[in-house]
Amino acid sequence: MKKLMIVMLAALCMLGFTACGNADSSSTAPAETTVPTESVQQETQEQQAEQSAEVTEAEQSDEEKAAPEQTEEQPEHADADEAADDHAIVVYFSATGTTKGVAERIASVTGGDIFELLPAEPYSDADLDWHDSNSRTSIEMNDPDARPAIANDTVDLDSYTTVYLGYPIWWGDAPRMMSTFVEAHDFDGKTVIPFCTSGGSPIGRSGENLASQAGSGNWLSGGRLDAGISESGIQDWINNMN
Predict the structure, then answer these.
(1) Residues of the chain with pLDDT under 50
(2) Residue 160 is part of which domain span?
(3) Does any domain span residue 119?
(4) Cβ distance 98 to 73 under 8 Å?
(5) Closest residue by Cα to residue 214 from 203, 206, 224
């Protein structure tokens, strides 16, 4: 009887130990299931971002290869030839400086270039004496075929479409040196606007005579401008051009 009780107590003890061992093992989490630390989480997120960027870049490269080639759009601008066509030049001869002052104001108003024609043989005061029938200018103006030489006729009109042509009025006409100039140049496709200065004489037929001698170009009537004309007066004259 005593032996039977000892065996039963031993069995109960064995069952108790087994239950305690199972309880301890169930309450401890396996090492593999441990929650990642903050540094491990950050590293994982960075790896995922890099992988996502690589995928995106690869997809974009494929799209760029498939898309048609495109060139960068350039700003619109006027053609170089068209810009040159809008350019004006003022070409003039001035014996005493009066025409020069007007020519400079025209160039200032229009924004055009300016070129002064110089005679190969400068005119002296005696040459300009219109009271003397034997003066140089009297002799030249009485000879329609006279063509005084120009010292510096180097102007190139190719890049201009508007030419303002200035001179003083001598004996009711343009100085013969202007005939020398127009006969030496091609005015085809250009608008030519003659202007003159004088003590009171109008431009008369001087522009028409030069146009006939030139044989080319679209010549407007032009006009006489006072020596003291202002830039606003010149602008009005240009606006009323016909």
Answers:
(1) 1-7, 10-85
(2) 87-239
(3) yes
(4) no
(5) 206
